[in-house]
From TrEMBL:
Organism expressing this protein natively: Xenopus tropicalis (Western clawed frog)
Name of the encoding gene: abo
Family annotation (PANTHER family): GLYCOSYLTRANSFERASE-RELATED (PTHR10462), HISTO-BLOOD GROUP ABO SYSTEM TRANSFERASE 1 (PTHR10462:SF55)
Gene3D superfamilies in alphabetical order: Spore Coat Polysaccharide Biosynthesis Protein SpsA, Chain A
Binding of UDP-N-acetyl-alpha-D-galactosamine, residues: 99-101, 104, 189-191
Membrane topology: Single-pass type II membrane protein
Annotated an alpha-L-fucosyl-(1->2)-beta-D-galactosyl derivative binding sites: 211, 223, 281, 304
Name of the molecule in the record: ABO blood group (Transferase A, alpha 1-3-N-acetylgalactosaminyltransferase; transferase B, alpha 1-3-galactosyltransferase)
The family this protein is said to belong to: Belongs to the glycosyltransferase 6 family.
Transmembrane intervals: 7-25
Amino acid sequence: MECGKKTFAKSILLICGVMAFYSFFRNGWSLQVWNPKYVIYCGTKRMLYPKPETLNPPRTDVLTITPWFAPIVWNGMYNSDILNAHFLQRGVRIGLTVFAIKKYTVFVKTFIETAEKFFMVGHRVNYYVYTDRPNDIPNITLAEGRQLVILNVPSYQRWQEVSMRRMEMIRDLSHQRFNKEVDYLVCVDVDMQFSDEVGVEILSDVFGTLHPGFYGSDRQSFTYERRPESQAFIPADEGDFYYAGGFFGGTIEEVYKLTDFCHNAMMTDKEHNIEAIWHDESYLNKYFLYHKPTKILSIEYLWDNSFGVPDLLKRRRFVAVPKNHEAIRN
Ligand SMILES: CC(=O)N[C@H]1[C@@H](OP(=O)(O)OP(=O)(O)OC[C@H]2O[C@@H](n3ccc(=O)[nH]c3=O)[C@H](O)[C@@H]2O)O[C@H](CO)[C@H](O)[C@@H]1O
Ligand SMILES: [Mn+2]
């Protein structure tokens, strides 16, 4: 009886050993599932995942695709292992532009420190920090493959103009510099922090982000520019989404086209002494109405905790840092 148990235990051990050896031989130290059919390679590492057709629609509580077939990025809709392998294979380089003019330099430290934890981890990243106060930009140790580029620029008196002029400054460097250094640009507000992963799932030819204050609102309540005299004008019966001014991007060429359009529209309005209600955001919304984004980031990518946390919001990846508007803008 004793002897039978021992033999049984030995056989189990032997079988496990052979399986472990075989698994290591084929896969190295990676987690293995016994279905070798669906494999991607990340370098030399084999990665396995279920066959896409076997998945039920991962989300049915939110809109995940637009009528022009652009994906809307929500948690649960994608596999970051597949995406990372794909973008690493392409050796993609990403530029993150951010403006810290006047007192907004206070946001830079948290912004970059949290980006190091959550933004495009494992990929090549250039931070482009536009500032009028280069001496106030802290020295932050960055991971390998990432660098900080400080761009010294003038400031403007009104905060609205500081915000709007970002379009011109991004446009100008797109053809002068960014096109030589990176493949994609991601353009964001600085008064923000990353609190969960923001990875290559966001990348596409040209992408915008749903504004957290207008998710699920009807068209009429979008705060588009409604005066027909403005270049940013959108009629009451048009418009797909209300996009946020604080998070857009795409390939260098597409970002060039977007920022060029917005800047020119602003300049035309300026000549006519008109400025759109929500500044750069209004012109961005106009652009996206007639140049549809090829991907849309959900409210996970731009949240403000003052709105609470709705059920459909499974991750808060990039959130507003509370600020005293009066104090910081003057
Ligand atoms: C999260 C989001 O969608 N934010 C948008 C929203 O307001 P916000 O209230 O978030 O605007 P804001 O005060 O953050 O200004 C926009 C950005 O301009 C820069 N800045 C501004 C003032 C200044 O003195 N120094 C400086 O550096 C800074 O990068 C800041 O993040 O509407 C703005 C236009 O009204 C812009 O479209 C913002 O992108
Ligand atoms: Mn902001």
